[in-house]
């Protein structure tokens, strides 16, 4: 995949990063607008509404800083992941080292989750502060080529900065939900007050705020899921570039998706991080808009096509 094809692939990653930056900026502005509208509806005049805007900014900033510097540790702790050394799992450690070298990336920290369900994820704020976690079930049920495919997929998320994106968007979605929930609960308990001069304008702002508070978390979640699905395709393609063996990742996805074990430590907050959605019942009910992952069959189909001459660049 040299020459023009390689350039095309890098262009796709560049577009991916620019779109992510635009999305995050747009999301941030939206959260501020939501804070202003709710502040106006709550307090009744434009000057007091600045309080809502400032509160949204402060909440978003604090949540962002905490999550940026400690979000990976919270995810790993919630997943009951234990950091390992080379002596604990030599084959896994060697495969991670191989994929780090192939991708030109620093060696991440390696974790194991004691769970019989096969799955894996990567987290961190950048390649210098990245971690890769796999379950003990993954090590038991996959052969070396399949394990290499999974690790390459996770290292692709590291190299493509998907780990940072997932963390930042998660913060913004969480902030949107927090502000909306605060406002709706306040209305339910009779909060808010009218200022002199608020009149019809305040009533209109209350209606707008209620509509935004109800719809904003829903659309924020939809947007997050849509982008997450696209990043899985890109990570699959990047993994093939690292391993030059689409068969390994395709076989791994086949095994993981067909496994009947339930990943006990997974939840709604961490499900989107895994290579295959660990909340399978939910995925079956929400194959469309709310799915955190693209259809597993489609991912395998694309990878099988690469075995017979297709390329990563053909992924749309």
UniProtKB/TrEMBL annotation:
Enzyme nomenclature, EC number: 3.4.24.-
Pfam families named in the record: Peptidase_M48
Active site: 154
Subcellular location: Cell membrane
Free-text remark on how the cofactor is bound: Binds 1 zinc ion per subunit.
Bilayer-spanning residue ranges: 21-43, 49-70, 165-188, 200-223
Lipid bilayer topology: Multi-pass membrane protein
Name assigned to this protein: Protease HtpX homolog
């Amino acid at each position: 995949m040299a020459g023009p094809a390689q350039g095309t692939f890098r262009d796709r990653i560049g577009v991916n990063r620019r779109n992510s930056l635009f999305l995050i900026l747009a999301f941030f502005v939206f959260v501020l607008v939501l804070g202003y509208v709710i502040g106006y509806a709550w307090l009744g005049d434009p000057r007091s509404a600045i309080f809502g805007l400032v509160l949204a900014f402060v909440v978003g900033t604090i949540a962002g800083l905490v999550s940026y510097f400690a979000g990976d540790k919270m995810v790993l702790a919630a997943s009951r992941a234990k950091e390992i050394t080379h002596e604990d799992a030599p084959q896994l450690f060697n495969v991670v080292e191989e994929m780090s070298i192939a991708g030109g990336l620093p060696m991440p920290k390696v974790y194991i989750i004691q769970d019989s369900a096969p799955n894996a994820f990567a987290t961190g704020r950048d390649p210098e502060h990245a971690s890769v976690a796999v379950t003990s079930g993954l090590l038991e049920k996959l052969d070396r080529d399949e394990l290499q495919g999974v690790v390459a997929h996770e290292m692709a998320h590291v190299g493509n900065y998907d780990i940072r994106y997932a963390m930042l968007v998660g913060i913004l979605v969480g902030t949107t939900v927090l502000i909306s929930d605060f406002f709706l609960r306040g209305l339910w308990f009779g909060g808010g007050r009218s200022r002199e001069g608020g009149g019809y304008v305040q009533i209109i702002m209350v209606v707008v705020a209620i509509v935004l508070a109800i719809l904003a978390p829903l659309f924020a979640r939809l947007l997050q899921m849509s982008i997450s699905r696209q990043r899985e395709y890109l990570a699959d393609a990047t993994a093939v570039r690292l391993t030059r063996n689409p068969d390994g990742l395709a076989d791994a996805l086949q095994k993981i998706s067909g496994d009947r074990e339930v990943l006990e430590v997974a939840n709604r907050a961490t499900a989107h991080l895994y290579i295959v959605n660990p909340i399978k019942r939910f995925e079956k009910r929400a194959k469309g808009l709310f799915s955190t992952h693209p259809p597993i069959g489609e991912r395998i189909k694309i990878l099988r096509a690469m075995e017979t001459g297709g390329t990563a660049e053909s992924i749309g």
